[in-house]
Specification:
Layout (H helix, E strand, L loop, with lengths): L2 H49 L4 E3 L2 E3 L4 E2 L6 E2 L19 E6 L7 H14 L8 E3 L5 E3 L17 E6 L10 H18 L6 E3 H5 L5 H5 L1 H18 L1 E2 L1
Helix pairs in contact: 3-6
Length: 240
């Protein structure tokens, strides 16, 4: 093989090596771009899932904090004084449920139960309170702002709204006025905080306490109550 042929062969080999090197670089660049694209898609999807609160299923009706509302019932604010025994002023940073209670003292009014909570600041006998108390005539008193915790549901104080209901007798059953007000208040809170059926709880569901008595001892009536909340949202719910 002549010197000129050797030089030509070397040129061909160098050209081939450059093409192979460029091909490898192109493959690496494409792979890098593909990985980067996948990372960006995953991050965007995670951000969308975080920012978009899923619709809550309450029976057949879809409720969502930003999309559906029901009329707020008539509520009278009668806030407890700040004190360590019934209104500590601790921030309630998230709401993941509504807990239903009963007063267990037949014949007492919403105002009397509110005053009992307020009196704990002086008596120091226990720690107890509720965000709302519903009376025998359907009146709703707000004792604690929804932005603060109440002493009602043990470990769930930190992420639930508490509703205390007055009763007429030892059966613990709510009369029609109390019941209707409870349905309306619960429905409003469900829509306000984007909750669903599983987030409406009895005190019993949290601690095992026989509260609210009638709805612990009558499961079908509890299911009916939750169904009535759903029906109220279905009937009164409006898109925002």
């Amino acid at each position: 093989m002549t010197e000129e042929e050797l030089r030509a062969r070397e040129r061909i080999e160098r050209s081939k090596a450059r093409r192979q090197k460029q091909l490898r670089m192109n493959i690496l660049m494409c792979a890098g771009l593909a990985v980067l694209t996948i990372i960006v898609i995953v991050m965007l999807t995670a951000m969308m899932r975080r920012d978009k609160k899923p619709a809550a299923n309450f029976g057949d009706v879809q409720t969502q904090k930003s999309d559906v509302s029901v009329p707020m019932p008539v509520v009278k604010q009668d806030l407890l004084p700040l004190n360590p025994y019934s209104r500590p002023g601790t921030a309630l940073t998230e709401v993941n449920g509504v807990v239903i209670h009963y007063t267990a003292n037949p014949g007492t009014t919403a105002k009397q139960n509110r005053n009992y909570f307020a009196g704990l600041a002086e008596s120091h006998t226990t720690s107890a309170s509720s965000h709302y108390v519903i009376g025998l005539e359907g009146e709703i008193l707000q004792c604690i702002p929804c932005e603060e915790i109440a002493y009602a549901s043990k470990e769930r104080n930190v992420d639930t709204i508490a509703i205390e209901c007055c009763i007429e007798n030892d059966s613990g059953r709510f009369n029609s006025q109390t019941y209707d007000a409870l349905v309306q208040l619960t429905a409003w809170l469900v829509c306000r905080y984007g909750l669903d059926s599983e987030d409406v709880l009895r005190h019993y569901d949290v601690t095992g306490k026989n509260c609210p008595k009638y709805y612990v001892e009558n499961e079908s009536s509890w299911r009916l109550f939750k169904s009535d909340v759903w029906e109220y949202i279905k009937k009164e719910g409006r898109s925002l």
